[in-house]
Each structure stands twice: as C-alpha cells, then as structure tokens.
Amino acid sequence: MSEPSGSGSPSDVRPQGGAGRRWPRPPLSSLGLSPGKKTRLSRLLYEHGPGGGTLLILPIDQGLEHGPVDFFANPASLDPEYQFELAREGRFSAIALHIGLAEKYFHRYAGTVPLILKLNGKTGIPSDAQAFSSLTGTVEDAVRLGADAVGYTIYVGSPAQDRDFSQFLGVRRDAERLGMPVIVWAYPRGEAVAARGGKESLYAVDYAARVALELGADVVKVNYPVASEKDKQSPAPYNTLALSPEQSFRKVVESAGRAMVLVSGGEKIGDAELLEKVRMSMDAGATGIIFGRNMWQRPKADALRMTRELHAIFREYAQPPA
Amino acid sequence: MSEPSGSGSPSDVRPQGGAGRRWPRPPLSSLGLSPGKKTRLSRLLYEHGPGGGTLLILPIDQGLEHGPVDFFANPASLDPEYQFELAREGRFSAIALHIGLAEKYFHRYAGTVPLILKLNGKTGIPSDAQAFSSLTGTVEDAVRLGADAVGYTIYVGSPAQDRDFSQFLGVRRDAERLGMPVIVWAYPRGEAVAARGGKESLYAVDYAARVALELGADVVKVNYPVASEKDKQSPAPYNTLALSPEQSFRKVVESAGRAMVLVSGGEKIGDAELLEKVRMSMDAGATGIIFGRNMWQRPKADALRMTRELHAIFREYAQPPA
Amino acid sequence: MSEPSGSGSPSDVRPQGGAGRRWPRPPLSSLGLSPGKKTRLSRLLYEHGPGGGTLLILPIDQGLEHGPVDFFANPASLDPEYQFELAREGRFSAIALHIGLAEKYFHRYAGTVPLILKLNGKTGIPSDAQAFSSLTGTVEDAVRLGADAVGYTIYVGSPAQDRDFSQFLGVRRDAERLGMPVIVWAYPRGEAVAARGGKESLYAVDYAARVALELGADVVKVNYPVASEKDKQSPAPYNTLALSPEQSFRKVVESAGRAMVLVSGGEKIGDAELLEKVRMSMDAGATGIIFGRNMWQRPKADALRMTRELHAIFREYAQPPA
Amino acid sequence: MSEPSGSGSPSDVRPQGGAGRRWPRPPLSSLGLSPGKKTRLSRLLYEHGPGGGTLLILPIDQGLEHGPVDFFANPASLDPEYQFELAREGRFSAIALHIGLAEKYFHRYAGTVPLILKLNGKTGIPSDAQAFSSLTGTVEDAVRLGADAVGYTIYVGSPAQDRDFSQFLGVRRDAERLGMPVIVWAYPRGEAVAARGGKESLYAVDYAARVALELGADVVKVNYPVASEKDKQSPAPYNTLALSPEQSFRKVVESAGRAMVLVSGGEKIGDAELLEKVRMSMDAGATGIIFGRNMWQRPKADALRMTRELHAIFREYAQPPA
Amino acid sequence: MSEPSGSGSPSDVRPQGGAGRRWPRPPLSSLGLSPGKKTRLSRLLYEHGPGGGTLLILPIDQGLEHGPVDFFANPASLDPEYQFELAREGRFSAIALHIGLAEKYFHRYAGTVPLILKLNGKTGIPSDAQAFSSLTGTVEDAVRLGADAVGYTIYVGSPAQDRDFSQFLGVRRDAERLGMPVIVWAYPRGEAVAARGGKESLYAVDYAARVALELGADVVKVNYPVASEKDKQSPAPYNTLALSPEQSFRKVVESAGRAMVLVSGGEKIGDAELLEKVRMSMDAGATGIIFGRNMWQRPKADALRMTRELHAIFREYAQPPA
Fold first, then answer.
1. For E86-101, how does the pLDDT look when each residue is reduced to its tens digit (9 = 90+)?
2. E221-264 residue pLDDT tens
3. What is the CA radius of gyration of chain C?
4. Which of A292, B14, C43, C99 could form a disulfide with B18 if both were Cys (CB 3.0 to 4.6 A apart)?
5. A267 burial class (0-12, 13-18, 19+ CB within 10 angstroms)?
6. Catalytic pick among D221, D224, D277, D317
7. D289 closest CA partner among D266, D272, D315, D308
C-alpha cells in the first residue's frame, strides 16, 4: 500500500500502544472548498459534536429506507423527537434526515442541532435490482432550513446508475452554487456488483469511494469493507490481495482522496466491536462516523454513555483547523 | 406498543366507559406548519365540518379511479352535483376531487364547501403491477380555485416508486412555497408488497404511513390494517405480532408521527361496523375520516342521517385549537 | 341619479324611519368572480366578522404611512399584537397590514383572524407631490401566508400615476392567476386633483372609484366625499351639483359598479358621527367599512363596545349569499 | 411611555443598583422566524460573540460609504485583514461588509468569523438629497459565501424612498425563500426629515424603526436619538415630548416591535460614554451593538481591551434561548 | 484512398526517410471555429504542451471508468495530485478529468496546467450492453473553472445512442453558446457493433469518427483501428479492404474531416510500440495523443523521460498557427 497522499506527514505512531499507524486527515484548506462549503463544514467539524475536525453524525432515514421495523428494538425511537433529543444531549455533530422529518421536527432544534438534509431515498420494498433513490428534497430546501450539508445516495454499479449520475449532477451543481457541502452515501449495488465479490467487498467499496470523489462529493460515507470468500470473484488484483482490515479500510480512504470519509455503522453490533471499529477507522484517516441503529436502538442512557466514549476517542484524533 | 409520543400526555381513560384508551391528537402548534398551511388546515379542522380539530371528508375521485361502475348503486351519484350537495348538506369538512370536477362543478359551492384538489390519479384499467398516478392538476390550480389542501397518492412499494417520489417532490415544494397543506393517500402496492403480507397488512400500512411522514405529508390517508394469515409473510417482527385491531391502528398513527391521520372508508360496509371503525380510529388518535362510497352509495337521506351520527361522534373528540 | 344597477330591486324604505332609501348590494354571483376569488371573499363576507355579506376590516398600516405618531393616543396600540387581539376579540372580518407585521405577528392568529396583505405603501415623510406607493409584498406572499385578499393603494391623479398603473398591472395579473381578491385603496392625490376641488371632493372620489373599477379592483376603499367651497373648481357638472351627503356617496357607489365599496374611517371622530356614517354608507350600498384609528386609538374596552354596535348595525344589512 | 409589549414580563429592577429599569428582549421563539432564519440568527446570538442572545457586530463598509478617509486615524485599519483579525481576536458575533471584501478576504476566516453580507451601499460623494443605496450583492451571494445574515440600508424619508422599497422587496423575498435573516440599517434622510427635526431626532429614528418592522426586517440597526432644539420642528406630539435619553431609546425599541434592535456606534466617542451608551441600550431592550469606527480606529490592543469590557457587560444581559 | 481533403497540400515526402507520406493537419483558420473556441484551442495547441499545433493530453478519468484497479501498477498514481504534477512537469497540453477531481485538485494548478473538463462518464460495473455515459458536469462548470475544452463520450452504435445524442445536443449547444471547444471520445459499442467486426474494427472506428464530425465535435478522440478476422463481418466493402495500419488510420482521419483527431493510448504498451504509434498517427494527420495509463502507470521518472521523447517527436510535426 502506498504512503499517505495529499495529506501532510502522518503522525508517527499510535500513542496507545497499537501496532498500527495513525494517518492524518488532509487539512481543510487543501480541499478546494468554496467559502460557503468551508464555513458550513467548519460548523460540523469544529463547532458542534466532538470537534477537532471530526464528525459524529446521527442518521434517521431508516424509517424510509427500512420502514418502522427498525424501531421495534427501542419503541421510543419511533418518534423522531427521540432522535433529535439524542442528537442534542449526545452532542452529535449533526442529525441527518429527510425533508418530512425536517419540516415537522427540526423547528424546535433550529440553532441547536445542526441539520444534514438527506436529499434522496427509497423504500426497502421493491427489488434492489434497479436500485435508485429519487429526490425527496432539494439543495434549496436545505438552504431554506439552515442545513449545513446535504446527503445523497449513489448506488454505484446499479443498472440505474446513469439516471443516478444525472440526478446527482443537478444536486452537485445547486450545492456548488449555494456553497452547500455534499455528503455522498456511496453504496455498491446490483447484480454486477454481486457477481464481483458483493457490496461489502473491498473491490466494491473502494470503487464506490473513488466514484464519489470523481463526481464531486465533499464527504463520502462508506461501509467498512468485509473480506470474504467471494473476493475471489473480484477483478484482479483485488481477488488476490491479502490485506488486513486496517489496510483495506486505509485503501478506501486513499481512494476517496480529498473527500472526507465517514464510516457507516450498519446494523447494531457489540460495544467493544463498535469502539474498535471507530478507532481503526480514525487511525486510517477517516473523519468520523455516522451511526444510527447502533445509537437509537439502545436505551437512551446507554446511547448517551456510548456517545461520551465516542467523544473521548474523537478527542484523541483532534486536529487543529487549517 | 410504546407510550404515545410527541403528543403531550394522553387522556387517561375513555370517558364513556369504553375499555380502550383514548389517545389525544398532537396540537396544531407543534406541527411545524407555516402560517399559510396553518390557516388553511384550521379552516377544515375548526371552521367547517364537525370542527374541534376533526376532519370529515367526502372524496369523489372514484369516477376516475374505478369508473362509473361505482355509481350504479345510487344512480343519482353519477352527477357530481350530487356529491357537492351532500357535502354541503351533510356539513363535511371538505370535498376532494380532480380538476375537471372542480372546474365544472365547484364554482357554485365556492365559499360554501371547502375544496381539496386531488392532484394525481389513474384509471383502474391497466394492470397495477407498475402502479403510478400521474398529475392531473397542480398546486397552483388549487390556489387559483381557493382550495384548502391538495391530495396526492403515493403507491408505496410499487416498482414505479422512484418516479412517484420525483413527481411528489415537485408537489411538495410548490405546496411549501404557497402554504398549501398536502394530504397523502399512502397506498401500499405492487408484487413486493403482495409477497410480504399484502397491501392491507400492518407491515404495509405502517410502512406507508411512515413514508408519507418522511416525504413531507401534512396529513396521511391510510387504510385500516387488516390482520390475516398472510401476515406471516411480513418481515419480522410483523410476522409474529399479535395486536388487536385497535393496537394495530394505533401503531400506524404513531408511525405517521406529526402527520395527521385520515382513515379511509374503503368499500361500503354496515353502519354499525362503520361507526365502530370511526370510534376506534378516533380513540387511536386519528384526526378524521374520508368516506366516499360509504356515503354517496346510500340514498341521500340515509347518508345525511349517517353524517349527523358522525358529527355527534366527532364532537366527543373535539380538542381546542392550540 | 340612476336606479340601482345590476343589483336586483332595492328594498323599498329604510325600516327604522329614516328618510333615505336603502340600496341593496349586488349579489356575489353577479360579479364575475373566479372560484378562488369567490371562495376567499366569501370567507370575509360570510364566515368571519359580522357576516351577511358585510365587511368590517381593521387596518394597521398607519405605522408605515404616518409613523408611530398615530399610536400616542393609545400607547398600547404601538404593539401590533394589540390590533391582532382587537381583531380577534372584536370579530373583525379581517385585519389589513404589511408583510413585516404579517411575518412577525400573524403566525399566532393564523386560522383565527383572516388576513388582508397590504401590498404597497410609503412613509408620510417625503412630499406627496409625486405620491406613489412602492410594493412591500407580493400576491404570492399573500398566498403563502394564507391571506384572503390583497390591498393596493392607487393614487389617482398623481403625476406618478403611470408608474402606479404599471405596478398595479402586475399585482392584478398575479391576483387573477392565483384567485386572490384585490382591494384597491383608491385615493385621489396630486396638484391637479387639488386644483379641481381637492382629494375629498365628489369629483375626485367619484373618479377614483371608477378608476379602481376600470383597472380591475374587486373591492374599492374610498373616502367619504366632503362637500366644500372648493367643489366649484371641479369640472362641470360636479361644480354645480347639489347633492346631499347620502346622494353623493350613493353616486360613488354607483361609479364603483361591481367593485364592492369599503368606506374609510379616516381620522378618529365622535361615536355618533361614526355610526351615522356607517348607516349612511350601508344604506347607499356599501359593503362595509375599514376603520383603523377610530378603533385602536380608543381604549380596548371602548373599541370592543363599538364593534358590538357595528355588528348590530351590520346585521340589519345582512344579505344572503347568492 | 407604555409598558413593555410582546416581550414577556420585564425584570423588575436593574441588578447592579442602577436607577433605571431593565427591559427584557422578546424570546426568539416569539418572532415568527422560519427554521432557517432561526438557525442562522442563533449562531450569531448564541454560538459566537458574547452569546446569551446578544450581538456585537463589527462593520467595515466605511471604505465604501465614507472612503479611505476613515482609515487615517489608524493606518493599519486600511487593510481589511485588520478588521477580520480584530473580529476574530475580539470574538465579535459577526463582521459586516460588502461583496468585494467578502470575496477577497473572508475565505481565510470562513468557519471562524461569521459573515453578514451588506447588500447595498453608496459613496459619500454625491449629495444626499436623493439618498439611495444600490445593490452591491445578493442574498444568493450571501448563501453561497456561508453568511449568517444580510444587511440592507433603507433611507427612510428620502425622495428616492419608493425605489428603495422596491429594491428591498426583492431582497426580502429572496431572504424569506432562503431562510436568511435581514438586518435593516434604518436611516432617516432627506430634506423632509431635516425639516422635521433632523435625522437624529426621536421623531425620525422612531419612524425609521417602525418602517423597518413594517417592511420585514428581522433586526434593525438604528442610531441613538439625540434631543435638540430642532425637535420643536417635529410633528406633534414629538415636538413637546420631554423624554430622558433612556426613555427615548426605549420608545424606539418598542416601535421596532419584534425586530431586534442594534445600536449604531457612529463616530468615535470616549470610552466611558461608549460603555454607558451600551448599558443604556441594553437596559432598554436592545439586542446588541454594531461598532465600527469606535473599534478599528483605535490601536488594536486598545480595541481588544474594549471588546473584553463589552463582553463582560453583555454577559450581564444574557438571556437563555427560547 | 482519396487525396487529403480540406487541408491544403500535403508535404511531399517524409523527411527522415520513411516510406510513408506525411499528411498535414488542416489550418485552424479553416475549421469554422468561433473566436472563443479558437482562443481556447490555441492555448492548448500553441501555448502549452509541445506546441506547434499539436496536443499531448493526460487523461485521469480511469478512476471512474475502471475504478481504482488501474492505480495498482503505480500506487502513487492513486492520488490525483500525482497526475497534476505529471502534467505540469511533463508539460502536457492539458489534463482531462471529471468535475470532482477538478474541484478538489485543480485549484493549485489553475493558470499552470490547462484543464479539459470531462463531462460524462460511467463506471465499469454494469453491463456495457446499453452503454451510456451520464453527465457529471456541464459546459458552464467548465467555463467557471477556466477550462479550455470539454470532453464528451459518445457510444456510437449503443442501443442507448438516442439518449446519448439528445444529451450531447445540450452539451454542444452550451459549448457553442459559450465558445468552448468540444472533444468527443468517439467509442463504438454494443452488440450490433460486435456483430459487425467489433469496436476496434476499421468499420466501427471509421464510422464513429464521422459521427463525431456530424454531431459537432471540434476534436475527436479515436482508438487506433485494429485489423482482425472479425473484419469479415463488417459491411461491404470494409469486409474486403486490405489496408495497411497507416492507411486505415489515415482513412479515419479523413472521415473525421475538420474535427481534429486525438489518438487514444489504451492499455499500457511497450515504449517502442508506443512511439511508433505516435509517429504513424501524426504522419496520418492526427493532431495529437491522449495517453493516460501509458503515462501514469509508469514510475514518474520514466514517464517524464517518455514525455521528453514525445515532445521531441511533436516538434517535428509543428505547423505554424494559421
């Protein structure tokens, strides 16, 4: 694997005795951000949440993507007010959701909890064969509501990828015109992806990260790549790589280039595993995490305890604005 | 099932000796409504119909959706003037219909019967496999006609769901810009829905209610979920839930969050059953009902008798503006 | 003077022994109103205020037109919340004001007090020689806020009249497109008016009423014409007419044609005089009154007493919707 | 003078033994602000500067309005970088300037110093007889740059007032559409103002504050009214009022209603006088101050010492968000 | 084969003793270019790169088209900064890439390395059966960034060709309006192409070049046609032509007419072969080459050595501006 690129010199060793290396994040000033994008991202990176240039984001779009089924684990979480409270009390960098929840629930938190307006989505009901997320909101909606970023899902590799790129073009242009940072949920999908190792393979995640960079993402949300037997179906040389999980994720961060990387939480996992995942991600140069079910499917007190632990970890990775 | 959320404290017991609990509706002031939406909804909720924050709506879009076949039961109902008269005499909160009927029949009732302009529709002729309702009117049409809300059908789960979301985006944005309340007819549809318990399953209705909330509905019209053997095909935990009809519907109301809930009448049913359905819905926190065939397929005198009974029931559920 | 035109047969004699005749108002159905305009005007004429097809409107644009000087007589009236409360408690048909007060104060009264958005205005500071009121809001603002009408001041006879007509064209067209009733404040102004009897002369008021009709007003607000020596400077035959105040005002109502007439209150006057002015206006076929300073410069209790008297008078003039 | 209106109950007495009364500021939640405006204003009021709902703003538009002449007192101040550094080190709530300085100097401070984009201006060279400030930027420029508010100068009473109102309409509408707070520099101007007591008279300042409220300002910047012999030329009752400076300023704050009040610094004055002016303003319900020359015409160390004193004062007037 | 067309008289013999003929390139003045297009192309042809009317272009869109897989051969190349450095140090005429890389990496090289903004693309994941590249940027983006040309891929023969033509129409029109040169990546694709000799056949490449000319390309990028057994499936007379590689390529150049021709590098090949390919192309009238993987998959020192060789060759083919 290559040396860290475009990101200054890495810190030498991981302080807390780990074997791994800690890769620095590229300074904000190197990212070609317009003043508006820089202003808005700075709010999330330095003025809210753990700060120090990190991101701790609470998504609540699962009611659309998966349906109310996700809320059974913690019935209180069915009420979006719950997630807003959690974001406020847990001092998240921002909450990410669709226009309907923003219109109906954000007004009480305007000025307190930063908003990321998720701009496209779909339900989990129809087949994913032609996966495509339609717009549910616009960049101008985000501006109107005082959001600090927008989110957009690209299904990399889907047969509907061409419509997706076209739709994203409009979003990207509006965002550029209005100084609004764009966070791309970069998700590999579709049968061609499945045939090459699957959506969790390094091949797929790595490619998706690069696509987000190429299309204009300021931040890219990726899933952690998972090695499996199916990797053998990936194109060379992915089919023969023998990378540690840390190396694999570092590879993805490098492919994302000057797009900051957010790690997706995915389904609820154990605490130790989760915290280890966070450290590994931050060591590899990630900017932060976006954890939904791992947060609001817990009892609130437990979630707040976890956010305190996350804040503590993130403080270790603080970098000054630059 | 969880405690009532986002709606203040519930009334403790049902006053008139019922076994069930009566759940309050969230106050209008908590819904994040713009002044225009609040003004228009207040007219329907407090100035017309039964009042007290309830809705009794008469739809007459079945001529488009089903064809004239629905009017054979009461031939007088074929003339849209019939439904306008019924809405006026029965003191409905509003009448809901498409642009053609609005243009040709509403002018005589302008200022007397509030109008909900239904903005999209389809015929019942082509297969429902790719169910999608095209626009028949616009929010600006509704403003021009003096309507107090617009209606839009989303077929949740349809393979054409992506086009539906895109089309709805335009409607939602115009409605926001012009202060026009949006009522979403949230209908599960398509083979994937059929394979998971069907369009009347709690899974499907519950998901549809949440989708409407996420996309920006101010009011959501849902069908009453119907338990059946097919529920076993629903995703867990829906496949093993053992909820009473009251509990199921309450679940749906909670998923709709700060979108007010209208109960659909569906096909004509017996009077006792119908009134019981209304009470059960209102107990569960519904805002009102939208009954078409159950109203205008009866002889007019019978329909007016029924509306008086409905007014009486709704008075029991009156809440002050707030 | 001609017989009442376009307005059915007049009631024969004034019931309470008056010498004068009572002229009916033209039925709403005769006015060529679009459904949207009819719907919105019906709310003001029949659903709020005294009803029966009358209008009792509370204007609070004097803070812009005259400055805070008008509020010294009743210091509580400096706070716009005062006028909103008065409109609500006194059951006015609507409150009329500019966008700034609408944005900041209306939200609490949305759904309770109907709104007339005044669309243009000026301060009383610069010379009136080129009197012209610029737009402060738009018809779309009015729609967005849920207003039931817009107000626009035309300075008839002003040297800036050409710009005024052009500006009004845009308002009138937007209002037509969106079904929004237009109330024209028809005010004679300028040195040419002064040279022909002055802005209170029958010549000037009569001409202004006709201009409003010609340009597309749905309702016209006029001042009561005041006979004086200066009438001799008016063009023939105005310079030799010897009409009673009642006849003069009836003349103006006829010139306004199918534009409904609102009588302006002007400066605060005595109660008996005010009530007499109201009766005289209604006898002459006026639709209602728009009284500001005569209302909110009084102590509130006194104002509410006066509104009760006005409601009682207006009930005498009720006409059914038609 | 009337009791405080629309602003909850006043605190009873000034804690630190002052003779005067301390008037509270209206809570943010009462101002009818959209979520976007609320979010952006909250950043200035609570997240930057002294906080606690106060504003300490540094304007640097004098280079346009007066020319480089203002920078001779402190030559370092000629470089706009100086004011940016001062804003950052002195922890101002925001810096206010025109598009040129924003484009050329803000990028280094994006994310650190909040921006208020001043949208119109003029030079001091032509006569003020027809005072009118043309647009130099747009609300969309402000959004693009990540500004938290826009500033607009209205010359109340100027013969060009009609063009000013028209121009402001476009700004106000864009700001509403994009959720951008509007700060109006409300300046009386013109010969008619001069003839009625002058631009510093209570009559003029009071009227200007109300005009800003009526036209849609969220915040209004006013000069402190100055009593003089010329007040006798003001319209009654202003010509006979005998108000203390505190009472005069409180009068202006009340006329501004739900528009927050910023006090202008004007020319450089002595420190004691300046601090006393600040206290008096805050006691009267002002939200904060906008001091330019009083800040950057001093040596920097002196200016920073002064900002520390201002921060200390403002802390006394902190109110919680509501 | 026909005589060179539209391009003046060819140079008579190849100076350095080659057997082949050297065909001149058409003078810039003969191409019907608007002043803007001519200005921008002149920068690439004469002011940067080898000059003399030639083009040496470095593309870096493979991260999107192929994924990060292409960067394994030279890990440093994963960082787009690498290609920018290579373009600068190797004195390329321009670098060609997508909007995301342009936004994030170009700012440091603006004014140093000319930019070609690639406007459409796709990933290599879904099947090529319906090959279509969606827009990722716009001509206006290119203008905004200071690009000197835009690139657009047309998949000639793809079943999605109709959508492609439509999409290109918009690009071509914007480019015409804004004076922006258009470089068309003319790629034969699809099963119908495969059935007629394949995408590398002379039939296919020749047809693609003409299509680019017909649709409005200013420059066309083609692959070198490769003779094979499959040519027998090409339509007559392509199925029986017996042309040398030089003749084949010259045929393609002639079909491109007044669109300048760029030769694509394709996969990495040996140095001697590459240089020979360049000479052959230039002899045949090509304007230059666009070599990506052949450049940045090498160690940088090696790549720079190669660019020096290419510069030397291009100097031989210099033509004066005309």
1. 999 999 999 999 999 9
2. 999 999 999 999 999 999 999 999 999 999 999 999 999 999 99
3. 18
4. B14
5. exposed
6. D221
7. D266
Q: Are C201 and C238 in contact (CB under 8 A)?
A: yes
Share of chain A above pLDDT 90, in %: 90
Provide the token pair at C145: 């806020």
Round to whole Å and give the CA distance between C153 and C166. Answer: 13
pLDDT digits (tens, 9 = 90+) for E48-87: 999 999 999 999 999 999 999 999 999 999 999 999 999 9
Joined together, the tokens standing for residue A263 give 């790690």
Location of structure tokens 């976890």: A306
Distance CA B178, CA B181 (A): 9
Residue D262 has φ and ψ, to the nearest 5°, of -110, 135
Query: Is the ipTM, as predicted for this complex, more than 0.90?
Result: yes
The catalytic position among A199, A221, A251, A277 is A221
Q: Cα separation of E243 and E254, whole Å?
A: 14
Give residue D241's pLDDT.
94
Among D247, D249, D228, D250, which residue's Cα sits nearest to residue D239? Answer: D228
Query: One of C82, C152, C155, C187 is an active-site residue; which one?
Result: C187
Q: pLDDT digit string (tens) for B85-102?
A: 999 999 999 999 999 999
The answer to whether E and C touch (≥3 CB pairs < 8 Å) is: no
What's the mean pLDDT when you consider all of chain D? 93
A158 interface with E at CB cutoff 8 Å: yes
Neighbouring chains of E at 3+ CB pairs within 8 Å?
A
Contact: chain D with chain E (3+ CB pairs below 8 Å): no
Is residue E115 less than 8 Å (CB to CB) from chain A? no
Q: Which residues contact D146 (CB under 8 A, 6 or more apart)?
A: A35, A36, A37, A38, A39, A40, A179, D110, D111, D115
CB A150 within 8 A of CB A139: yes
Show the beta-strand stretches assigned E in chain B.
55-59, 94-97, 115-118, 120-121, 134-135, 149-156, 182-188, 219-222, 260-264, 288-290
**Composition of chain B by helix, strand, coil, percent to 5:** 45, 15, 40
pTM recorded for the entire structure: 0.93
Name the residue with higher pLDDT: B225 or B8: B225
Task: Show which of residues 2-31 on chain A sit within 8 Å of chain E, judged by CB atoms.
Answer: 2, 5-6, 31
3-class secondary structure, E269: coil
Pairwise CB contact (< 8 Å): B212 & A63: no
- Contact across the interface for D39 and A178, Cβ inside 8 Å: no
Contacts of D34 in chain B (CB under 8 A): 34
Secondary structure (3-state) at C289:
strand
Q: Which of B:196-235 have CB within 8 Å of A? A: 196, 203, 206-207, 210-217, 235
Q: Which residues of E touch A210 (CB under 8 A)?
A: 63-64, 67-68
> CA B225, CA B199: separation in Å to the nearest integer?
8
Token digits of residue D99: 């598009």
Name the residue with higher pLDDT: C99 or C17. C99
Confidence of residue B268 (pLDDT cuts 50, 70, 90): confident
Residue A68: list chain B partners with CB under 8 A: 206-207, 210, 251, 255
CA distance B231 to B202: 8
Query: Is the minimum CB–CB distance between E59 and chain A shorter than 8 Å?
Result: no
Q: How far apart are CA A131 and CA B52, in angstroms?
A: 45
